[in-house]
Amino acid sequence: MVSLSLAPLVSGVAMRARWVPSAWVLPLLLVLSACATPPLAPVQDPAVSPSAAAAGGAMGAMQIWGGVIVEVRNLEDATWIQVVSYPLRGQEPRTGGTTDGRFLLRAPGFLDPVDHRVGRWLTARGRISGFEDGRIGEVPYRFPVLEVEELHLWPDGPAGEPRGWGGVRFGIGIGIGL
Fold it and tell me: In angstroms, what CA-CA distances link 83 with 39, 68, 97, 114, 156?
């Protein structure tokens, strides 16, 4: 709240404005800063994309990678999730551009494939523990493996639709009731 102090206009003294912080300023700043907090703890190691990691190096580096789930495999002791990687902004995948390659997440224990379904966005924090040779269609592919320490699932869009860039949606329809 802004408080104005009206000084008397005596002997040429003009009106002055004085700003006094109110009790709501500090709570407002705390709320706004909480909105900007990323879901996963930051990492100290230099960022390496999954495609660069697959080319070699970065073994053991702590990374934060994210993207869209394309496959989930539950094994007896771990869950393996194949992810199409996208660049992150605020740790959230930005799917509107080119991918950063693919990677495999290895999470100890069981992760329910209903929650971790194909098309869902996720961000994971973990160490690059190795590489797995696989295929995308008929093409051989070397997947870097990220051992999950933290995992964040992003909420779906409206009515269970996959998340997207949002924007304006416009439609025209004709309804006929019989």
Answer: 18, 5, 15, 16, 16
User: How far is Cα 171 from Cα 153, in angstroms, rounded to an integer?
Assistant: 30
pLDDT at 13 over 50: no
What's the pLDDT tens digit per position in 42-98?
A: 888 888 999 999 988 789 999 999 999 999 999 999 999 999 999 999 999 999 889
Is residue 47 within 8 A of residue 123, CB to CB? The reply is: no
From 2.40.50.140, 1.10.760.10, 2.30.30.240, 3.40.50.300, which CATH number describes the 50-157 domain?
Answer: 2.40.50.140
Strands 62-74 and 121-136 come out as: antiparallel
pLDDT tens-digit series, residues 117-172: 999 999 999 999 999 999 999 999 999 999 999 999 999 866 455 555 454 445 56
Nearest-angstrom CA–CA distance, 89 and 101 = 17
CA distance 124 to 121: 10
